[in-house]
Design brief:
The protein has about 375 residues and is an all-alpha fold. The protein has a domain at about 30-245. Helices cover about 75% and strands about 0% of the residues. It is built from five helices and no strands. Helix 3 crosses helix 4. The protein starts with a helix and ends in a 71-residue tail after the last helix.
Amino acid sequence: MNEKDLKDKLNDYRKDVEVKKKEFNELLSEVRIHQKDINRLRKDRDKGNDECKTLSKQAKEMREKRDVLNKEIADLKAERKKLNENIKKLSTDIKEHKEKRDELNREARGTDTSLVHRYESDIDSLVNKDISLEKEKKLFNSIFSLIGRVGAAKEATEFHKKVLETYNEIKVFDDTADKISAHIRELADESEKYHMKAIDIYSTVDATRKVADECHENLLEKYKIVSPIRDRITAIKKEMETMQDGMSPYLGEMDKIRIGKDSERKAQMAADAKQKLKDSKRISINDLRALMDVSKENESILSDIIDGNLGEPDDKPDGYTDNDNDTAVEPKEIEAAVEPKEIEAAVEPKEIEAAVEPKEIKAAEKPKEISEPDTNSE
């Protein structure tokens, strides 16, 4: 394959590479746009999840404080229940004692003091007064009747004392139960505050979680869009690498042709330089390099140049300049094979998201149903 065919082949490859490179850059720009949205959505989702965790922790603290108070309330209610049971038992005792007292009072039909006074009066009349036999019999019957009634009256008085003592016990229990009930109401109010705070926090958690879930769903949709683009970018990279591999043999051939032309050019320059030396003309640095590259036979010529044995030319040769550092105008350089522009490495976009869906967002832990504290007094 000649040089022209090689150039045409390489140019065809280069055009194909430019097409792929253009498509690659367009896809890369599209991915970067989506990547901004992905980063924003992920940031908002993670922020929402972090807020849910923080708020759930706060709600848990509120629930724990509420539960401690509810436990204290339950203990107080148990204590109050025992008091109420004692009051109930004592109330039953009072009822029984009152019934017995009332029964005895009906039997006595008077107080023990009045009955004793009447009894003593009848005894005095019977012993000290002169009364008829019929009245004496009535006094005897009255005295025996009074003896039983006095006993019933005294027993009724004892039951009445027991009723009063029991009432006093109940009053003490009632006062204690009232204090416990007041304390329960205070604790219940405080518990209710923690309860309402927990409910408010969980409402905020639900709203925040909803936003985070929406961000997560939108993020998944973005992944679905980016995934095929990412696959296409990967495919284009492989295609460009394949094209580079296909160009390598042709580039190698062009290098060989260029090296051959360079060798011919240097040989021609060396020949021209030798001719200049023969004609006692000044040679350029490039001529000197050509001579050194072509043959080591120039060592003697170099010695003459260094010793200054070469004569000054009578007139300036073509291409000569007054500047010692300038080189003689070289013949038109043989056109080198045009290399295709170096294929730029396919630059991966920063963190092109994998098609694999992100792990499911762990939902903020839902609170167990919050039970209302029972503030009703039993």
